[in-house]
Specification:
Layout lengths: L1 H20 E6 L2 E5 L2 E13 L2 E14 L4 E11 L5 E10 L3 E12 L4 E10 L4 E12 L2 E11 L4 E4 L4 E2 L5
Antiparallel strand pairs: 1-3, 2-3, 3-4, 4-5, 5-6, 6-7, 7-8, 8-9, 9-10, 10-11, 10-12
Amino acid sequence: MTFSVKFFKIMVFSLMFLFFSCKEKKSVENNFVIDGMMVITKFYSEYYEGERKIYTLRADTGFYFDSTDIYKLKKVEYKREDGEDVLIYSDSSIVKKESIDYFGNVKIVFSDSMELYTDSIVYLIKKDTLKTDDSIIMVKKNNKMLTYGMICYDNFKRIIFNSPILIYDQEK
């Protein structure tokens, strides 16, 4: 019984520490309201765990929905600041408290020069995980490969593909 109480106290303290140590800074250059939606330009956001910056997120334009605390952004760039150097580009994204959904011409660039292309992908912020069930084209050193679905985790250092990887030949 004593063990259960101590374990419970440790878990509660750990969760509180995690909750209060994660913070986010956001800024926009210009904003104005149209039909109850805030139109924003030059969106910039930084996400921290404690004092360590995890990522930055930039976008040219977008909308902010105050009632749901959701941003819909256009021409988005995600830059990983901690762990593996990763850049994500997309035509648009939806930024929520727990996730960032990227849509349209998604390009992921890893520091080892591997590039992934897909239609959509979801970044789960708290789990630090990137996943998709869409088709993926991988490019590395002029080799193109095709697969479907993936999950990327462990500071973006590990990738598991959901299906076999095939050599992609556009000429056939």
